[in-house]
Specification:
Blueprint lengths: L5 H6 L3 H6 L5 E4 L2 E4 L11 H10 L10 H11 L11 E5 L5 H8 L3 E6 L11 E5 L12 E7 L8 H9 L2 E12 L4 H17 L4 H21 L9 H12 L9 H10 L2 E8 L5 E8 L3
Parallel strand pairs: 2-5, 3-4, 3-6, 4-5, 6-7
Antiparallel strand pairs: 1-2, 7-9, 8-9
Length: 293
């Protein structure tokens, strides 16, 4: 193992975290961990504004779910019993606001949340956050028992490349779960193409202009939701705003089929793959177990 970075050792004294992180790849900045490579141009990435808005408005839900509801989904999606979680090492790839990351830690696991834009303060003795690129995570190979990438890797430049990088961090006998957007058909495919057309330009605008556009769209869809019956009528204005950010500001947004994702698992030595989240019109979630040598 490489020599310890003094600044790292001076701040963290957590044996579980110390054992899995490549210390020379991290430095502390403004109270949180940042990878020394791979975070790229922050202005080309959209989620900082989205999660800042989420925090500033005090949102207790993410995608219509509370932290506890998301924890129950985590157990279902990863095919993990609550009794199996204590002591496990978990990586939350695309942790966003960190609510689920902390919930998993509170259930007994040791958890690292990573995100390219999340500015989250270091957690407690069971939870740490790192700002880094999914394609170059600063951890040793085969470090984690469970990795989740829930709605995140399809927002990177190459979804499969990000999947490969994360899959290499799973221990033998461990598992990885990913949720990705699915390829649409028929009229929905036309709607998706129209959304992507506008997103292509909006995602490249300065953050101030993005905020203005998102706010105007939020006003429109909020008023519309009060006239029409549907799922949006149950959402607050701030919840709708977060959804608008997510739809129109990511630089990348890829779509995949079950067969395509199942092939990724097989190429990375995972078997017993199973779709565990499929009651969503936008995407699906699949989990796989890493074969033991």
């Amino acid at each position: 193992m490489n020599k310890t970075n003094p600044s790292f050792a001076a701040i963290v004294n957590l044996p579980w975290f110390d054992d899995i992180v490549q210390k020379e790849q991290l430095h502390a900045k403004d109270g949180h961990w940042v990878s020394v490579s791979g975070i790229g141009d922050r202005e080309s990435w959209s989620f900082s504004e989205e999660w800042s808005t989420h925090a500033e408005t005090g949102q207790q839900k993410t995608w219509d779910w509370t932290a506890d509801e998301r924890l129950q989904l985590f157990f279902k999606e990863t095919k993990t019993e609550p009794s199996q979680l204590p002591g496990k090492l978990v990586l939350d790839a695309g942790c966003g606001n960190g609510q689920l990351t902390r919930a998993i830690a509170s259930a007994g696991a040791y958890v690292v949340g990573i995100d390219k834009q999340a500015h989250l303060p270091n957690g407690d003795d069971r939870c740490q956050f790192v700002q880094c690129d999914f394609d170059d995570p600063p951890f040793w190979k085969e470090s984690f028992d469970i990795i989740i990438a829930n709605g995140s890797i399809h927002h990177t430049k190459n979804t499969f490349q990000s999947f490969q990088a994360l899959a290499s961090l799973v221990k033998q006998g461990g598992k990885i779960y990913v949720w990705v957007y699915k390829k649409q058909t028929g009229f929905k495919r036309i709607l998706t193409a129209a959304l992507d057309f506008f997103r292509f330009f909006i995602s490249r605008f300065p953050s101030r202009l993005q905020r203005f556009i998102v706010n105007r769209q939020t006003d429109f869809f909020y008023l519309l939701s009060r006239v029409r019956k549907g799922e949006n009528s149950k959402r607050s204005k701030e919840e709708i705003r977060i959804n608008i950010y997510d739809a129109f500001t990511p630089r990348y947004r890829h779509y995949h089929t079950r067969e395509e994702v199942a092939k990724w698992f097989k190429q990375c030595s995972f078997d017993r793959t199973e779709v565990t989240h499929d009651n969503n019109r936008y995407g699906f979630g699949m989990v796989g177990l890493k074969e033991r040598s």
